[in-house]
Design brief:
- Helix 1 packs across helix 3, helix 2 runs antiparallel to helix 4 and helix 4 crosses helix 5.
- The longest helix has about 45 residues.
- The chain contains six helices and five strands, in the order H-E-H-E-H-E-H-E-E-H-H.
- It is an alpha+beta fold.
């Protein structure tokens, strides 16, 4: 393969992964053509992209992207998957697909630029999605505010009632005195 072709392949991979900080390196060996086609189709529905890699060229591209640690996962047949709604959704979808196919495996990957191994990818699949996490944080932030508002509104009626009771007692005490 000529140097020019290699440069074109590396440029294409760089442009495909431009701005991507979360990706997985997978091994698709032992998949027949039909299973691989169905796998790719399922990924496209979730806006996840897959590209088969030439390991030596991928090492250079990942090194340029600041993810040198991925080179240890680039042995044998390798493919990169990226995209989707976030790192946890990507890991969940790939893990789910691989459980049904029973042949491919996750070699490793990167989450927000940090290189992770297959064990960490399993941990990531157990995390809630980004939207769920945002909802949980918002509910935690809004919880005290809602409690404060409910206390203020309920105490206002209680305070008014207590002031009225004190006023009545004062009037009663003033009359008796």
């Amino acid at each position: 393969m000529s140097k020019y072709v290699k440069e074109l392949m590396m440029d294409q991979l760089r442009s495909d992964l431009d701005g991507t900080q979360s990706l997985l390196i997978v091994d698709l060996k032992d998949l027949d053509a039909i299973a691989e086609h169905n796998f790719r189709r399922a990924l496209r529905k979730k806006s996840i992209r897959l590209r088969v890699l030439k390991n030596s060229l991928a090492r250079r591209v990942f090194s340029d992207m600041g993810m040198d640690g991925l080179s240890k996962y680039l042995k044998g047949a390798s493919a990169v998957v990226w995209g989707g709604d976030g790192p946890s959704e990507l890991a969940k979808e790939i893990t789910t697909q691989f459980k049904t196919l029973k042949k491919p495996q996750i070699k490793g990957g990167a989450v927000d630029g940090v290189v992770v191994g297959p064990e960490q990818v399993d941990i990531i699949t157990k995390l809630p999605s980004r939207e769920v996490l945002i909802g949980q944080v918002l509910s935690l932030l809004l919880g005290p505010a809602q409690q404060t508002l409910s206390l203020l509104t309920s105490s206002a009626s209680t305070v008014v009632g207590q002031l009225e009771a004190l006023a009545k007692r004062g009037e009663a005490a003033g009359i008796e005195a």
